[in-house]
């Protein structure tokens, strides 16, 4: 039911993983901003979906980690990183992600009960974008 | 004969609307083709006045998305890599892992995993992979199978690789 409806989507692979709510209203006008956690199809493998946080939007400049380069995010793309930098396959490996690959935005954790709550928009420290 | 039949009709139209939306979203839809990048395959009228009044309408099927069964030569609809609000219709020239010769250059390019190389049938007037590079397969929205309008051009859209653009 495409962009005009929302879908309760439980994404899990084992009983110890969190279940999160993914809303798709954001796709109607593509209203994303930095700090949102999004679900997107992998640019390198269209059969896989990933969950990462948007660090920069089109036109922003970011400092590429472990390098002295600044990179300008191309039009229509965003830069995503996992909150756990040490253990995350993200834009640092596969580069900026086209916004057309985004499938929805994570808004809440719904399971397990002790972790139920809103997923807040936030930029990790030290990863400011201009 | 008042409220009950009105409510019934209302529910029927809501249900009909939901079914139509689901079909259009998941299985097949009809879209109009703008522009000349697929000239001769679509929008082949050479009269510029007539052309603007008579864009071809094509049937886009989405069953192919379930298993991502595309091959070289298919005409696909995809979101533009540089502008997620736009959709384009082009032909797949090469699939992941294949090598192609980049036009107007001596380079050979290997198509990265998960991407495809698309070009319009009308090379002179087409914004395609020669400008924005390989397209992620995740951006594909469907495959064009038939022209449904105008009536004199109704027919199947065949899979074909343009001459001289072989890939291996």
From TrEMBL, chain A:
Topological relation to the membrane, as annotated: Single-pass membrane protein
Any one of the GO BP annotations: protein processing involved in protein targeting to mitochondrion
Main localization (coarse): mitochondrion
Pfam families: Peptidase_S26
MF (Gene Ontology): serine-type endopeptidase activity
Domain Peptidase S26: 9-64, 72-111
Location in or out of the cell: Mitochondrion inner membrane
Residue stretches spanning the membrane: none
Lineage of source species: Eukaryota, Viridiplantae, Streptophyta, Embryophyta, Tracheophyta
Family of the protein in this entry: Belongs to the peptidase S26 family. IMP2 subfamily.
Entry GO CC: mitochondrial inner membrane peptidase complex
Alphabetically ordered keywords of this record: Hydrolase, Membrane, Mitochondrion, Mitochondrion inner membrane, Protease, Transmembrane, Transmembrane helix
PROSITE patterns: SPASE_I_2
UniProt cross-references to InterPro entries, sorted A to Z: IMP2 (IPR037730), LexA/Signal_pep-like_sf (IPR036286), Pept_S26A_signal_pept_1 (IPR000223), Pept_S26A_signal_pept_1_Lys-AS (IPR019757), Peptidase_S26 (IPR019533)
Organism field: Nelumbo nucifera
Protein name: Mitochondrial inner membrane protease subunit 2
TrEMBL record, chain B:
Keyword Translocase included in the entry's annotation: no
Name of the featured protein: Mitochondrial inner membrane protease subunit 2
Location of this chain's protein in the cell: Mitochondrion inner membrane
Topology within the bilayer: Single-pass membrane protein
Alphabetical keyword list: Hydrolase, Membrane, Mitochondrion, Mitochondrion inner membrane, Protease, Transmembrane, Transmembrane helix
Coiled coil location: none
Active site: 37, 90
Domain Peptidase S26 as annotated: residue spans: 18-102, 108-149
Any single Pfam family the record assigns to this protein: Peptidase_S26
Source species: Nelumbo nucifera (Sacred lotus)
CDD domains: S26_SPase_I
